[in-house]
Design goal:
278 residues, alpha/beta, five-stranded mixed beta barrel, binds hypoxanthine
């Protein structure tokens, strides 16, 4: 378990290197890190120089913070994240979110690579999260379990307004302006690292999930606990396979390949939203 001082220590190291105070946090998922390449007035901080910060061990996650401006907005972008399946605790995986909060970030935008469960979703599509199913949280893996530190938020957190309605409206507006199709749906979080079996895919779809992945939800919980405004996008990198003995198998390479199509689309939407926020 971290103490408050552990978070403050990482904050102090970051503060010693930056002059721009970020108000918007960006978490860039598998294959989506290139989004941060256009941040201007940038300061880059490798995760390994930050005390307490979990390292990302997965290809497609470069493992650094980029702090600067995007569309004039002071942002802090996480190029790559750590996952529960890498062996980290839920507290470790969400450590960066509390550091962002203490730095003054009040709006958090998360992205992830996800499998499409909804039959109308295709590879390369974007889904704006309007809700989630925290399946690993229901099984006990929840970052808010343990003694509650009131400095970060209250013991019990309501989840009826998790994905900010105003930010979602902005995203819809920007996507329409760019003639980019944007689904809106429910993201379901599993621990991974294996992809789902066909039987699991059919079950998750029947439960009302539109996309499935291995991240985001625990970060969202910690951000909402702290009262941050949250928006999140899934990039659909593969269609989840729902029959046994299919001629194809889901793999990480296709996830990263789809990222190349998704980055320009996500960049357009995020830039538009930031412009509206500026
Ligand atoms: N399942 C879980 N996580 C994922 C997938 C998937 O199909 N694609 C990308 N991340």
């Amino acid at each position: 378990m971290y103490t408050y001082a552990d978070y403050q220590q990482a904050v102090a190291v970051i503060q010693s290197k930056i002059t721009i105070q970020p108000t918007v946090g960006l978490v860039l998922g598998s294959g989506l890190g290139a989004l941060a390449d256009t941040i201007t007035e940038r300061v880059v901080i490798p995760y390994e120089t930050l005390p307490g910060w979990p390292q990302s061990t997965v290809p497609g996650h470069s493992g650094q913070l980029v702090i600067g401006r995007l569309e004039g907005v002071p942002v802090l972008a996480q190029q790559g994240r750590a996952h529960f399946y890498e062996g980290y605790t839920m507290q470790q995986v969400t450590f960066p979110i509390r550091v962002m909060y203490l730095l003054g970030v009040n709006t958090l935008i998360l992205t992830n690579a996800a499998g499409g469960l909804n039959r109308s979703y295709r590879v390369g599509d974007l889904m704006l999260l309007n809700d989630h199913i925290n399946l690993i949280g229901m099984a006990g893996m929840n970052p808010l379990v343990g003694l509650n530190d009131e400095r970060f938020g209250p013991r019990f957190v309501g989840m009826g307004h998790t994905y900010d309605a105003g930010l979602r409206e902005m995203a819809r507006h920007v996507a329409a302006e760019h003639k980019l199709p944007l689904h809106e749906g429910v993201y379901l979080c599993l621990s991974g690292p294996n992809f789902e079996t066909p039987a699991e895919v059919r079950m998750l779809r029947a439960w009302g999930a539109d996309a499935v992945g291995m991240s985001t939800v625990h970060e969202v919980l910690v951000a909402r606990h702290a009262g941050m405004r949250v928006m999140a996008f899934s990039g659909i990198t593969n269609e989840a396979i729902d029959v046994v003995d299919a001629p194809v198998e889901t793999n990480h390479e296709e996830v990263l390949d789809a990222g190349k199509v998704l980055v320009p689309r996500l960049t357009a939407v995020l830039r538009g939203v930031l412009k509206a926020l500026a």
